[in-house]
Amino acid sequence: MSKNKATLVSSKDMFSKYQENVDKIFNNVKRSVPRYHQSSTDIQQELLQSFENMVGLSIMIQKEFVKKVGIASNTPTSILNVIDNTSEEFVNATSIQNQIMLTTIDATQQKHQKHVMIM
To answer: Domain containing 95: what range?
Structure first.
């Protein structure tokens, strides 16, 4: 019988130690998540800003080149309308894509929360 008690005590100790270490690991990960989130947000904003700067400089260089070379830059209104309409459609499509993505994330979170509550 004393052997069974020793086994029980060591089992309790093993699970307590296991839980203690699992808690330690999860707490460490939880502390890191905000930093990862902030870092990924920062780099996304930096990349977007860099791309915006690059496109702006490209337009400026092309405009200067056309002017120096003497190429006519007058564009028919119909072409300008196509450019505007294409840009508007792109903005609308990305807006819809973002709405779908956010709705999907919200639905996934709600489903996960319901699943966790059931457990």
So the answer is: 75-119
